[in-house]
Structures are given as C-alpha cells and as structure tokens.
C-alpha cells in the first residue's frame, strides 16, 4: 500500500494534536495570583555563599541578594496592594535551586546563580545584579596564570556549579591529567583546599573572596589572576512567570536608576573584612540593565 494516504492522515491529525498539547505547553505561570491568594511568597536562599546569601549568627537569611529580593517583595506588595505579604525562606543547595523552583517549593531564588544559556531553557532570569568571574583559589605559593598550570593537580569543584560544568569539559582536553573532585557545597571544597586534599578550588571570584575574608586566610590563600568565565548573577523565577519577573525587574531598575544600588553594594562589598571593587561589567549592568548570559573565556567551551 502507498504511504501517501498515511502521510495525509498524519498531516490531518497534526492540527488536532497541536490543539491538544498547546494549552499545557503555553499555560501561563501566575505566581502573583498565588501570592494574592495565600499572601505568602517563598524565597529560596543559600546557607553559605557570603556576601550574597547566607545564614547569619542569629540563623537569619541575609546578604546582598536577599536584600535585593526583599526590595522586590516591597514592589510586589505595592502592585498587589497587600502590605501584609508573609515571606517564608527555604534553604536550597546548588543542585537543588532549579528543581525546587520548578516544583513550586520556592517562588524566587536569591543567591549567586549565574544566568547561562543552558539554564535559560528551564527558567527565566531578572536583570543582572552582579558580574563575577570564575577563578581558582590556591595556596599563595602556587601561581595559576594559564589553564595548563592546573595539569596533574587535584582540583575541587562544587556540585551543580558552572565551574563543575566547565572543568568537566576541560577534563576532555586541556586538563586531561587533572584530578577533579566534586564536593556538595563551597564549604566542603574550601575545607578540602585548606586541609591539602586538593591544590586548587575553582569557583566564582566573589564567592572565593567571601570565603577567604570570613575565614581570615587572605595571607595564605590567593585568587588567581586567570579568569575562566564571565558570570552574571540574577534572580531566578519559573519560566513564563511574566508578572512576577516584571515586578522583580522593576524593583531592580528603580534601585539602579535612583543610585540606591551603590549604597547597597557598599554595605556588602566594602566592609572591614571584605573589599570587592565594583567591576566595569557590574557597573554597566546598573547603567544599562540587561539579561546577557554568561560565557566561558576558554574557546570551545560553555558554562
């Protein structure tokens, strides 16, 4: 029998099939509606990524990213005309960030998450609020000027991070002889470096500086000059959650245009224990709010 009639039958069925599946694919995410009904917003925070998102000595979530999200909550209150919205925090580890967001366990993720093209397939991002760069933390005696300087060395990575993704790609080429060891979180990877179990710890420079300054090990550990990526941080929301994302973006744009962001930046990055000068890319993101994804600085690789 000719296949032609079957093709016609398939073609005739396509519109019907499309009509059946399109509503579920295009179903809008309405977190603002849920917040209006429950008068509650769930915010995902990190336990130990200072100065962005961490739990302080009083067991309270705090940090630069948390402050930005709380400012967004104020914008949500104004839009919904609900001054009594309750904020509930939920700790999320690196690998849990996107799954818990997609499962509805959190509504916003306020940490140190890089906007990447790969992640954009699953979630939406706010305007960039900080731009970091992936670097390597080592003992001060070890100088890392190129990727090849890490050959044959044990390197610590954090599970679910962009550094884990990039270094696994490098393991197939430039770092074929390196020993890559993945840890559950930054704290464990940092501890492994201090105990001599690894010779280097690859992570975003701002997070590395936060760890070192809190631990007062700046005399013995140093961050490499070598930058392996550009990492723009942003708030994550569920894909298609347009109303909530618009509120977050408005709150950030207002901070940027009014100049209030400068005082907030100084609060967390110019302290007695930590000094991170505002980089050009971070400043540019305040002047011209954008959602550009991060990129690897090593040709042929991605983050």
From TrEMBL:
Matches recorded under InterPro entries: Bact_solute-bind_prot3 (IPR051455), Iontro_rcpt_C (IPR001320), Solute-binding_3/MltF_N (IPR001638)
Any single biological process term in GO: amino acid transport
Domain Solute-binding protein family 3/N-terminal: 40-272
Example GO molecular function: ligand-gated monoatomic ion channel activity
Residue ranges annotated for the Ionotropic glutamate receptor C-terminal domain, each copy included: 40-271
GO CC terms in record: extracellular region; membrane; outer membrane-bounded periplasmic space
Range of residues in the leader sequence: 1-27
Keywords of this entry: Signal, Transport
Family statement drawn from the similarity comment of this UniProt entry: Belongs to the bacterial solute-binding protein 3 family.
Full protein name: Transporter substrate-binding domain-containing protein
Provenance organism: Variovorax guangxiensis
């Amino acid at each position: 029998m000719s296949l032609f009639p079957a093709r016609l039958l398939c073609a005739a069925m396509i519109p019907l099939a499309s009509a059946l599946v399109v509503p579920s694919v295009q179903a809008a995410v309405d977190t603002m509606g849920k917040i209006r009904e429950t008068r509650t917003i769930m915010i995902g925070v990190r336990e130990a990524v200072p100065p962005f998102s961490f739990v302080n000595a009083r067991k309270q979530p705090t940090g630069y990213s948390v402050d930005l999200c709380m400012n967004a909550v104020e914008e949500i209150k104004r839009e919904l005309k609900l001054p009594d919205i309750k904020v509930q925090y939920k700790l999320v580890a690196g690998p849990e960030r996107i799954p818990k967001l997609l499962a509805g366990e959190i509504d916003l993720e306020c940490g140190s998450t890089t906007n990447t093209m790969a992640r954009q397939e699953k979630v939406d991002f706010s305007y960039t609020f900080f731009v970091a760069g992936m670097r390597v933390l080592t003992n001060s005696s070890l100088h890392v000027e190129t990727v090849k300087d890490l050959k044959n060395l044990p390197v610590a990575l954090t599970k679910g991070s962009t550094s884990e993704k990039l270094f696994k790609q490098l393991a197939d080429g430039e770092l074929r002889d390196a020993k890559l060891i993945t840890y559950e979180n930054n704290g464990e990877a940092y501890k492994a470096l201090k105990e001599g179990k690894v010779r280097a710890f690859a992570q975003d420079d701002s997070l590395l500086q936060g760890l070192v300054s809190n631990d007062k090990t700046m005399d013995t550990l140093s961050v490499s000059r070598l930058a392996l990526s550009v990492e723009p941080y942003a708030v994550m929301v569920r894909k298609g959650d347009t109303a909530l994302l618009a509120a977050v973006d408005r709150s950030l744009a207002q901070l940027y245009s009014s100049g209030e962001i400068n005082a907030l930046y100084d609060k967390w990055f110019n302290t007695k224990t930590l000094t991170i000068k505002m980089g050009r890319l971070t400043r540019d993101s305040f002047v011209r709010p954008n959602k550009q994804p991060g990129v690897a600085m090593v040709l042929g690789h991605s983050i």
